[in-house]
Write a structure and sequence with these properties.
Elements lengths: L3 E8 L3 E8 L5 E10 L2 E10 L6 H11 L14
Antiparallel strand pairs: 1-2, 2-3, 3-4
Length: about 80
């Protein structure tokens, strides 16, 4: 498996949502959400998941259900 593989990307007027596989010994899913104002990023969130999600509805549903749980989303961990 490649080191990274794009799963989903969507761009709205003020929000962009990106998810991709991160490979290696195991496979995880990285979610990135950007808030933008024109050409500038005004806010950024990232999370790492172990569950496969391939569309916006699955991603949003999972995030809403797990937003306040400890150690579920592994948030704001930036890796390259």
């Amino acid at each position: 498996m490649p080191k990274r593989k794009l799963i989903y990307f969507a761009q709205g007027k003020e929000i962009s949502l990106l998810s991709y596989y991160k490979g290696g010994i195991g496979k995880s899913i990285c979610i990135l959400i950007f808030e933008n104002n024109g050409d500038n990023v005004t806010d950024f969130w990232c999370g790492h998941l172990n569950r496969e999600m391939t569309n916006k509805d699955e991603i949003i549903d999972y995030l809403q259900k797990n937003v306040n749980k400890n150690f579920v989303l592994n948030t704001n961990i930036i890796t390259f």
